[in-house]
Amino acid sequence: MATAKKLTENHLTCVICTEVFTDPATLQCHHTLCKSCLLKYTYTQPEAVQAKPSPCPSCRKLTNVTTPDSPVEEWVSQLKPSHVIQGLMDDFGPSTKAVEENLCGVCTKQGKTTPATSWCSVCDVVFCEGCLQMHNMMPGLCDHEVAHLSDHTKTKVKRRFTRQVHRDKRIELFCKDCKRAICTICCSIKHRACKDVDTIESMTPLVKEQLTNKIEQLRINMAATNNIITQRNSTIQDVKSNSQTLKDQVMKTRETVMRAILRKEKQLLGDIDKATDEQLHELQADIKSQEIELQMYQQQYEFTANAVTSNCEVDMYAVYESMCETSTDNKDTDNRPAAGRVVLTRDLDKLSKAVDELQLGEVQVVHGVSDPRSSPVLHHTIDCEEDGDGEDPRFYDVTVLTVDGVKVMVVADYNNNSLKTYYTSNFKSFDNQLLLSDGPWQIAKLSESQIAVCVPGSKEIVTVNVTPDPVLLSTIKTSKQYYALACLSPSQLAAGTDGQSHSVDILDMTGRILRSINTGVVESPDYIHVTRNNNLIVSEAAVKSLVCVTSEGDAVFTYTPTADRALTWPMGITTTSTGNILLVDRVGAVCQRCPHTTGWSEISCWCLS
């Protein structure tokens, strides 16, 4: 067995990875390497990749490629090991390791091949029955823990902990800086600069606890993922059902349009029948009249002809006298209007255009709040009433920040003169609050960790750092009571007052008014929102309009819906990533500045295109 070990170490080891060959390949210079190592080495030689001869890492000789036009991976895979190397690999390669592990380690050193039956967890050596008895008789070895090879669970748990490097050394230390289990040699050579190294025994309970927590977290993640999969499968069914519903709606719309076309067809056909009947009636009446006149003319004709042929002067003059009284000259042209002709006026170009532009509907994919028929899903509810609150909380504004990867919700509690923060870290929930001089109104987000809050009762704007607990940074004294507040830029705030000035003041961070922007029909802005292009959208509860102006004061639009879409009590505003404006319209009669309402109904979102 010593010969086998020597052959493996000296002749079956790759010069690149220094390990026993895996899928060996022999070059024309008779040097053998692992194919994967040869491929990686070839990629480091650009000239070899282009010219396609494979250089030997040992002697630099080139190996001609049989198919130079093929990719590098293909011609490397075509290289085969020599017959000698392949024979040695078959006899002494990694596949024989399992056989060696089942042979007694002591007998193997003596050139014997005795099957092993037991394993010492301290020596990490397998023994046959005879060698085990000698092992147990040695005073320093008799207390070692020995397991039978058939007990796979025990041998696996007690297996000596070693690494690929320094295999003969037991892993006894753990480097906390590098987060690696190491032996004493690695500690003295590679981890000399590390500051925190502990023993494996002291670290094992902590590692086990962390792995146990990881298992619990993975269990939670698996459950959550299974829920997501279940929801997605349910969503698939909803999508299919929704698709069929939409198809039914399209066909129903088509039927409605077809009924309208058929109704129009019936109307036109009825108009044609009515006009035709009227014409036929007039023509038939005229024919009847003409027939009566024809009979009269025939009688006069016969009477006159008889008078002329009778040679009786009395009859002839009598007829002549009657002719003078009733003229029998040719009848004048009939003054009655000629019979009309029923026609259908068509504009084929206009008809074709109308058909092309016929709108049965529009198909699009909508997400979240952009879907007018989407159903909100409650994810989580936070009780913001604290033990120290003097009154029932009344929240006038809320925002969410991301502080060091933690989502922090900040709430303005007007009744208790405080800012409250809520967040979750390491599966634990935390809350804190910052007391202010008076009730906070609106929150302006300055950054992911800083906010500004207007306190109109004390004519202040405070800046707060969220760590994630709220920490007061500064207090800005203002000349007016500002209720609405928004961040226009890192150095400028937009604030609305109750002075009925039809304007929004632009302030610097000291509270100085830089300029005032006209807000049109909105006298005293209650809420301000700054859009992505730095326009300002303002609302006032008593005004049934939304007004949008630029940061320089130019009017953009005034939105005043009517009828069923009319605003009742417009309040908070925000915009979505798609450019839609979301407006909270609180229905019910309320006092404009008093926090006490005389009627609550609902909060609705308006989506303005």
Distance between the termini: 84 Å
CATH architecture of the domain at 395-608: 6 Propeller
Radius of gyration: 50 Å
> Which structural class do you get from the secondary structure elements?
alpha+beta
Instruction: Count every beta strand, where a strand is a DSSP E run of 2 or more residues.
Output: 29
Spans where pLDDT lies below 50 across 5 or more residues: 95-100, 153-159, 588-609
Largest sheet: 4 strands, antiparallel
CATH C-level category of the domain at 395-608: Mainly Beta
Q: Superfamily at the CATH H level of the domain at 395-608?
A: TolB, C-terminal domain
Query: In DSSP terms, counting alpha (H) and pi (I) runs of 4 or more, how many helices?
Result: 13
CATH level 3 topology of the domain at 395-608:
Neuraminidase
- How much beta, percentage-wise? 15-25%
Strand line-up of the largest beta sheet? 11-12-13-14
* Helix content estimate: 25-40%
Shape: elongated
Mean pLDDT: 79
Architecture overview:
The protein is an alpha+beta fold and 609 residues long. Among the domains are: 2-157, 2-Layer Sandwich (Herpes Virus-1); 395-608, TolB, C-terminal domain (Neuraminidase). It contains 13 helices and 29 strands. It has a four-stranded antiparallel sheet, with no helix packed on it. A four-stranded antiparallel sheet has the order 15-16-17-18, with no helix packed on it. Strand 20 and strand 21 (503-508) form a beta hairpin. Helix 1 crosses helix 5 and helix 11 (200-309) packs antiparallel against helix 12. It is elongated.
